[in-house]
Amino acid sequence: MPVVNRIADYTADMTAWRQHLHTIPELKFECHETAAFVAERLREFGVDEIHEGIATTGIVAIINGQGEGPTIGLRADMDALPIPEETGVDYASTKPGNMHACGHDGHTTMLLGAARYLAETRNFSGRVALIFQPAEEDGGGAGVMVEEGIMERFDISQVYALHNAPGVPEGMFQTNTGPIMAAVDTFEVHIQGVGGHGAMPHETRDPVMAACGIAQAIQTIVSRNNYALDDLVVSVTQIHTGSVNNVIPDTAYINGTVRTFDPNVQKMVMDRMAQIVEGQAQSYGVEARLDYEVNYPATINDAAKAEFAADVARDISGDERVLTEVPPMMGAEDFSFMLQSRPGAYLFVGQGDGAGLHHPKYNFNDEIAPIGASFFARIVEKAQPLG
Fold first, then answer.
1. Treating both helix axes as pointing N-terminal to C-terminal, what angle do 369-383 and 104-121 enclose, rounded to 10 degrees?
2. Domain C-terminal end among 294, 323, 345
3. The overall pTM is greater than 0.70
4. How many CA atoms are closer than 13 Å to the CA of 110, on its beta-carbon side?
5. In this model, does residue 1 exceed pLDDT 80?
6. Which domain holds residue 246?
7. Contact assessment for residue 207 and residue 250, using Cβ atoms and an 8 Å cutoff
8. Whether 312 contacts 378, CB under 8 Å
9. 226: domain CATH number?
């Protein structure tokens, strides 16, 4: 089965929805205009229930099928990024400094297209829960929705999500049967020294040299403390200190990210980083505080659900355009919280050539919206068939 014919009929409407959403990018949990637009469309479609205000601006909408059965969850993220847009399109962001640089406007549109079709046809048993989520980029909105009890409240038994993939051929699906995205943690090191004149360093306790030593030593966690076949990234991404060429400052600041799949590796990094910061601070005669924040867990597909989702994708795009052995990526995704709570799968759908995710010239490809909507619709009909 290719793109569902009825969903193909929605193409012009879906393009209009997506391009409107592109003009109103909102950050984190403050997706008020976006959520209002989504709720308005859902009411037009005649869904059975609309539950608003979950995780501030999240929505769960229910469509009842025909007859008894379980509830399947479909998730789309709604938030944007604090990036000034450089696309030059006539529907560019109207909110200076914010843009949909990751395609969440497209993900929301895909799920709206599926909602319209499912509300019209109801060719499934049980129920479908349409999950429109804020704060994927920053804030862990998926985790907040889970904490607020959506899985239990709506009796969701399995859950699925899609993400567009620039550089992957248009309409090609990619996934795997295990870890697909990494856990992400953030660390900060706050260094307190004693500043002074740059010509008299012997009278100071130099936080600049301490920052350099700590940053270099942190890199040895990957090269000397981690088993080479265990995936791990530790990146120092910021060092801030000083303002004048002849003054040694009092303080320095280090920031970075850690990506892992194995909780044991994650714990090793936390322990080793604490030891390094303490030891380096002593060796340079400064004080240093490590703030280590555990953020999104690894996104791990349920093997059976991922195989099932791949079968549905093959119905849409054909056998040769579905890859099920893509290697795990070191990026992160808060859908991981939903997969910790319920079995399910996360897939990528190619959107062809163009700027990459989080780039100021990125723009979602409207041609793939009917493909994603068809995937969402078919996964419901195949998971919960009539009879």
1. 50
2. 294
3. yes
4. 34
5. no
6. 183-294
7. yes
8. yes
9. 3.30.70.360
- Tokens 């399995």 correspond to 158
Whole-angstrom distance, CA of residue 144 vs CA of residue 147: 5
Report the alpha-carbon angle 276-282-288, nearest 5.
65
According to the model, what pLDDT value does residue 102 have?
Answer: 98
| pLDDT score of 387 | 80
310/284 same-domain check: no
* Same-domain pairing of 52 and 76: yes
Domain boundary among 247, 262, 294: 294
Q: What is the pLDDT of residues 271-314, one digit of tens each?
A: 999 999 999 999 999 999 999 999 999 999 999 999 999 999 99
The answer to whether the beta carbons of residues 14 and 105 sit under 8 Å apart is: no
| 193, 283: one domain | yes
Q: Tens digits of per-residue pLDDT, 305-325?
A: 999 999 999 999 999 999 999
Amino acid at 291: D
83, 88, 92, 95 alpha-carbon torsion, rounded to 10°: 40
In percent, the amount of the chain with pLDDT more than 90 equals: 98
Radius of gyration of the chain (CA): 24
Answer yes or no: do 200 and 330 share one domain.
no
When divided into structural domains, the chain yields a total of 2
Q: Tell whether 13 and 155 lie within a shared domain.
A: yes
User: What number of other Cβ atoms are within 10 A of residue 197's Cβ?
Assistant: 11
- 107, 192: one domain: no
> Do 94 and 150 reside in the same domain of the chain?
yes
Average per-residue pLDDT for the chain? 97
Q: Are 67 and 125 in contact (CB under 8 A)?
A: yes
Same domain (yes/no): 148, 211? no
**pLDDT tens digits, 132-149:** 999 999 999 999 999 999
* Residue 323: other Cβ atoms inside 10 A: 17
Query: Residue 378's domain is classified under what CATH number?
Result: 3.40.630.10
Section 34-51 average pLDDT: 98
Instruction: Reply yes or no on whether the pLDDT at 366 is more than 80.
Output: yes
